[in-house]
Design a protein that fits this description.
By secondary structure, this protein is of the alpha/beta class. It has helices spanning 13-28, 35-44, 61-69, 157-167, 190-199, 228-240, 243-246, 257-264, 268-278, 282-288, 292-297, 306-329, 336-346, 349-360, 364-382, 389-401, 403-416, 423-432, 440-443, 452-471, 477-496; strands spanning 49-55, 86-90, 95-100, 106-107, 129-136, 144-148, 180-185, 211-215, 252-254. Strands 4-3-5-2-6-1-7-8-9 form a nine-stranded mixed β-sheet, with helices on both faces. Helix 1 (13-28) packs antiparallel against helix 16, helix 2 packs antiparallel against helix 15 (364-382) and helix 20 packs antiparallel against helix 21 (477-496).
Length: 521
């Protein structure tokens, strides 16, 4: 069996150990029905991280995807493409390929308009297609492939089943086609909790390491008022403190997806229409901005025709319209580019991007290794041949011994509040373990542009802090074990931030214990 070559050996032993396990599994199962699955696992380890956007119907999944990519790629209406699981990945040029349930993949021709969103299914019916793959040149897609899914509570059982199969929550097996999930919700509904409980699996225990929840359509929380996002932010903050949600996802963030998508694709003609509205009589404008019907159909002396008003409402929503008008009236937004920048900053997309970078992309190797381990485990359970006994031992050794998984388990324990640490210690431990992001500077609570010597000194201080905690006579057994995990992480930070290195990093390869003064023996 031939597996694709992996990238150069990394600083962490986990990805290399998992690749070796997959190669070994390929040798054991060569010529068996498990081969295609194992080859797919090996290829997947070398691909960008796969992140699904999931949620109930009309949660704003496609709109959020367009905002993240900065391009109107995903259809946001009730068309057929919204009924098909669609993968969006970085490519050299625009291309759409259908993967039927039976038969070979086939490229799809453009629709009548030739636009990006207009795709002809080439004679196929939506129910005959397993998924679509859309290639598009995009830096946003270079580090992660985004997967748009139909609503989990669709009236069609088949549509919901397609999403559950993609996410590995259909109950048939534990394999997921994605590594992480952005889960959209308007508020915490019972079905949202049930899904998050189902998806939170990892090779050792069930943990929320790969899920970020988004309070989608955040502008609707405040009924379109200009301060709507402030209300949404307060609600999201309460959700983040809810122990039930802390056990199900890493964080909860408010995002006005429609506003973010519009900001990324704002047109000059739209800015001119907004400017006309902003210069109109205040009382007349407020009269229009009461209901959608009045705004789009009422007669008015404002020189913006009904069709343009309807298009603006569709693109901006009431919140976006009111905010845009105020930004122009106040003189903050004097050009289309400035308005786009201001809307994007207020839409809540930047914190989500930072979370995706720090929590997902920063742990991409760990999350992909986790997915590969789940796939290997599924093979071992489905085909328990005698020759695979060594594989099972190797699998258990990796899942039990990988420090990356020890960090993740400790992060989850911190979220539950079970450890007897002070609030300050809990916050420091959460940060050092990568809860706020995996970069060394983030783990150490410093600015990313800090000099290497400052990173090194902070790493030494953190190491000494947790060494003392691990050895303190009043520390309980659980606290001592947690402190030892933190000591191991800090040792890696010290080694990875030593002055003279070209780039700060977390080095988790086997290493000697540091001396009391933080130096290498």
């Amino acid at each position: 069996m031939t597996f694709p070559p992996g990238p150069p050996a990394g600083l962490s032993p986990l990805p290399d150990a998992v690749r070796a396990l997959v190669r070994h599994a390929g040798q054991v199962y060569e010529g068996s029905p498990a081969m295609p699955q194992l080859q797919s696992v090996a290829q997947r380890l070398n691909e960008p991280l796969r992140v699904a956007i999931a949620g109930r119907i009309k949660a704003g999944k496609s709109t959020l995807l367009n905002a993240l990519v900065g391009q109107e790629l995903a259809a946001t209406d009730a068309g057929e493409c919204t009924r098909i699981v669609t993968w969006y990945r970085d490519g050299y040029t625009y291309r759409v390929v259908a993967h039927p349930r039976s038969g070979s993949p086939r490229p799809l021709p453009p629709g009548p308009s030739g636009g990006v969103l207009d795709v002809s299914l080439g004679g196929l019916r939506a129910e005959e297609i397993d998924h679509l793959v859309v290639d598009w040149p995009s830096t946003a897609l270079s580090t992660m492939t985004l997967v748009d899914t139909p609503g989990l509570d669709s009236l069609s059982v088949e549509l919901s089943r397609r999403t559950e199969t993609t996410l590995g929550t259909d109950g048939e097996d534990d394999q997921s086609e994605v590594d992480a999930v952005i889960y959209l919700m308007r508020h915490v509904h019972g079905s949202d909790v049930r899904f998050l409980e189902t998806f939170r699996n990892d090779p050792a225990e069930r943990r929320p390491i790969n899920t970020i929840a988004v309070l989608g359509r955040a502008d609707e929380v405040g009924h379109g008022r200009v301060d709507a996002l402030e209300s949404a932010a307060r609600i999201a903050a309460r959700y983040r403190q809810d122990p039930r949600l802390q056990a199900l996802c890493q964080t909860v963030l408010p995002v006005a997806g429609l506003l973010a998508a519009t900001a990324a694709t704002l047109r000059e003609a739209e800015f001119r229409a907004i400017t006309t509205l902003a210069r109109a009589d205040e009382a007349e404008l407020e009269r229009l901005l009461v209901t959608a019907t009045r705004f789009t159909h009422a007669e008015t002396g404002i020189a913006v025709d009904p069709a343009t008003r309807a298009a603006l409402l569709d693109r901006f929503g009431f919140f976006g319209l009111r905010l845009s008008v105020r930004l122009v009236q106040s003189g903050v937004a004097t050009t289309a580019a400035v308005l786009a920048r201001e809307l994007s900053a207020r839409a809540g997309l930047a914190p989500l991007r930072e979370a995706l970078t720090g929590r997902f992309a920063g742990r991409a190797d760990v999350l992909k290794a986790r997915s590969a381990l789940l796939a290997v485990d599924a093979v071992l359970q489905r085909w328990p041949v005698p020759a695979a006994a060594g594989l099972r031992h190797e699998y258990e050794r990796i899942t039990a011994g990988a420090h990356e998984f020890a960090e993740i388990r400790l992060l989850d324990t911190l979220r539950t509040g079970a450890l007897m640490l002070t609030d300050t210690e809990k916050a420091a431990a959460y940060r050092v373990l990568g809860g706020d992001g995996a970069a060394p500077a983030t783990r150490l609570g410093l600015d990313p542009q800090s000099p290497a010597v400052d990173l090194y000194r902070a790493a030494i201080a953190a190491l000494n802090q947790w060494q003392r905690r691990a050895e303190h006579p009043s520390s309980t057994r659980d606290v001592r074990e947690a402190a030892r995990v933190l000591v191991r992480t800090c040792e890696g930070l010290v080694l990875g931030t030593q002055p003279g290195l070209s780039e700060p990093r977390l080095t988790l390869a086997p290493q000697p214990r540091l001396t009391a003064d933080g130096m290498l023996p």
